[in-house]
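Final report, section 2: Outcomes. Of the targets proposed, F-box domain-containing protein is the one most frequently requested by collaborating groups, and we therefore present its record in full.
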Amino acid sequence: MEPGGGGGQIAAAVSGSAAGVDRLSALPDDLLAQILRPLGTPDAVRTSLVSQRWRRVWSLLPELRVPSLPGDPIRFRDALAAHQVRLRFLQVLSTGGGAADPKSISIWLPAAAARVSGNFALVVNQISPAAEEGRDGIVDLPCFQDATGIMIRLGHLGLAVPPPATGVFARLVSLRLECVWFDDPSELEDTIASRCPCLQHFRLCHSLRMYTLTVSSKTLLKMELEELQGVWELIVDTPELRELIVSRCLLDDDPIAVITAPRLESLEWKYSAGEIDESVELGEMPHLRSLGKLAFFVYGLHDLSYNRTTVQFLQRFRAIETLKLMLGYLPEINIFQYLMEEMNVLPDLAILHLMVDPNGHAFGAGTFHVLKMCTRIRKLILELSGSFDLEEPNACGTGCICEQQTNWQTEEFLFARLQEVEIRNFRGSDHEDSVVKRLFESATAMRKLKVTFDVSVTESKARELCHMFESIVTTPGVCMDFRYRNHTKV
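The predicted structure is given below as C-alpha cells.
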C-alpha cells in the first residue's frame, strides 16, 4: 500500500489483534472495505456476523460477484438497495446451482439497475421448469441509466426491453445479449437507435424469433450477430461501424440484407448454405481491410452451393489487405469430386490467414491451389485444425482420392514478397513436413517464422521439430520462434 494509504493503521490494528485487543474494528470504514476486497463476495457478506460493527462493512465494496442466483430475491433486492456505494461491477451467475425463475430475477433487477455505475453481468444456465413460453418466461429488463457495460445470458428465456418512459442508457458503451428471445424485437431495435447515445459494441447471439432485425446507430463501432436462427431480413445502418461479424444468421433461401457501413474496416460473414446473391447489398466499403471467415469444401458434389456462395462473395472484392479463408474436408470423400478448380480468382492480398481442417486427408493440393493465387502476399498464417486424432493426416487409407492431386509437389511457385510465415497447430506428420518444405522452397524473401505446435506435441517432439525447421529453412537471417503447450517458448 502506498504511504499515507492506511497501511500503517492496518499493520497496527493487526498487531493489536494478535495481542488480544480488537483494534481492527476501530479502523475507518474505507480501510475495513480494503480488507474485505480480496475475499469472495459470499465470504465478505459472512463477516457481517462478526459483530455489529462489521454488519454493513461489506456494503462498502464497489464490486460484487454472486456465484449463484439469490434464493430470496426480495432480500437480495433490499440488500442492493441499501448498498452504500455505487457498484463498478456486479456479476450474478447461476453456476452455483439453482434454476432461474424469470419472476424472481425481475424482482431484484431494478435495484441492480439503480446501483450499477460500471459493468453488469447476468448469466443463467439452468431454467426453472415453471419458466414456460409466454409472460411467465420473460425477464423484465429495467433501464440501467449509469451502467457502462451489460452482458446478459438467459438460457433462452425471454427478455423484455424497458419502455421509453423509464429513461435512457445514458452511459452504456457495450451491450451483449446471448441466448434470449424477444416477443417484440422492434423494442430492442428502438432502444439501440434512440436510447443508447454512447453505444459502441453490440453483440447478439443464439437468439430466437429474430425473423427481421434492423440495427441503426450513429455510435456503434463493433457489432457481432451470431446464430440468430432464421433471419430473413437484416438491415444495418451504422455510419461509424468499424467491425462487423454476421455468422449463420440468414435463412438459406432468398435472404434480404442491406448493410450500410461506409467506414467498415473488418467484415466476417459466415453463412449456412444459402447463396449470397443480389439480395444481399453490402454497400460501399472503401476502408475495408479484413475479410473472412469464408469457407470452401475441397471435395464434394459439383457446383456445391456452399462453395458457390464463397466464390460469389469473393468476387465482390478486387483488393483486400487480409483474407481469412477456411478449407474443409469431409471425413469420407471418395464418393465426391475435387472442387478446388471452381475457385479461380482471389482479391489482391497482403495477408492470407488460411485455416485447414483436413479431417485426416492430405491437404497439400488444396492449400497450394489457394497459395498460387496469392503470390504477392507479405504474410501467411497457416492454421491447421487440431480436431483430428490421427497420427498421420493422410491416414484415411491407401487409395483415397486425396492422394490423386500431386501437381503441387512439382509445380513452380515463387512467393517473392512473403516475409513472415506463421504456422499454428503443427503436429509434425510426414504430410505436414512436405507441405512446409515445399512452401519454404518458394519463400525466398522470408525474414520471420513462428511455429506453434499442437497440444499433442511433447516437449521432446517439439525440439525435434525445431531442428527439422532449422534444416529446411534455407533463407539466411530468418528469425525463428517456436512455441508449444500454452505458447511456452521451446
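Residues 110 and 142 are 6 Å apart (CA to CA).
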